């Protein structure tokens, strides 16, 4: 018992340190981050501009249990995510060269988009 504790404790501490480092500063790989909140009526902002053809991170935070923002879909990218209440969820995407990159709720009622510029 004593032997296994002495082996696992250092490993545990290393793992813990790695976790803390990651959660303190999630790597964005130099991507600009766009923050979007989701409430009972939809996305705020519902449209945001981003550079065409470039990588971007969208950080979604659902702030209300009303409405149907629990699921997030990027239909053209086949991305589906659950949005827990008040927990930011980062989605890394690459913008199309032009036009819009749409995102919706799970039932396609709430609509938002990133607009390439
Ligand atoms: Cu919906």
Structural commentary:
Residues 7-25 have low confidence and may be disordered. The strands form two sheets. A five-stranded mixed beta sheet has the order 3-9-8-5-6, with no helix packed on it. A four-stranded mixed beta sheet has the order 2-1-4-7, with no helix packed on it. Helix content is 20%, strand content 39%. The chain is an alpha+beta fold and 117 residues long. The chain has one helix and nine strands, in the order H-E-E-E-E-E-E-E-E-E. It binds copper (II) ion. Copper (II) ion binds at residues 68, 105-107, 109-110.
Task: Provide key terms for this protein.
alpha+beta, binds copper (II) ion, 117 residues, 20% helix, 1 helix, 4-stranded mixed beta sheet, 9 strands, 5-stranded mixed beta sheet
Main sheet overview: 5 strands, mixed
Mean pLDDT: 85
Spatial ordering of strands, largest sheet:
3-9-8-5-6
Q: Helix proportion of residues, in percent?
A: 10-25%
Can you write the helix and strand succession as a string? HEEEEEEEEE
Summarize the structure.
With 117 residues, this protein is of the alpha+beta class.
Please describe the topology of this protein.
Blueprint: H1 2-24, E1 33-38, E2 43-44, E3 47-50, E4 55-62, E5 71-74, E6 79-82, E7 89-94, E8 100-105, E9 111-116
Parallel strand pairs: 1-4, 3-9
Antiparallel strand pairs: 1-2, 4-7, 5-6, 5-8, 8-9
The site of copper (II) ion has 6 residues, from loops.
């Amino acid at each position: 018992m004593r032997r296994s504790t002495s082996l696992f404790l250092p490993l545990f501490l290393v793992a813990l340190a790695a976790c803390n480092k990651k959660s303190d500063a999630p790597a964005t790989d130099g991507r600009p981050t766009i923050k979007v909140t989701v409430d009972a009526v939809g996305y705020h902002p519902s449209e945001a501009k981003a550079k065409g053809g470039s990588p971007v991170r969208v950080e979604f935070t659902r702030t209300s249990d009303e409405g149907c923002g629990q699921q997030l879909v990027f239909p053209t990218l086949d991305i589906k995510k659950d949005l827990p209440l008040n927990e930011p969820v980062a989605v890394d995407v690459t913008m199309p060269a032009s036009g819009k990159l749409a995102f919706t709720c799970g039932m396609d009622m709430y609509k938002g988009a990133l607009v390439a510029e």
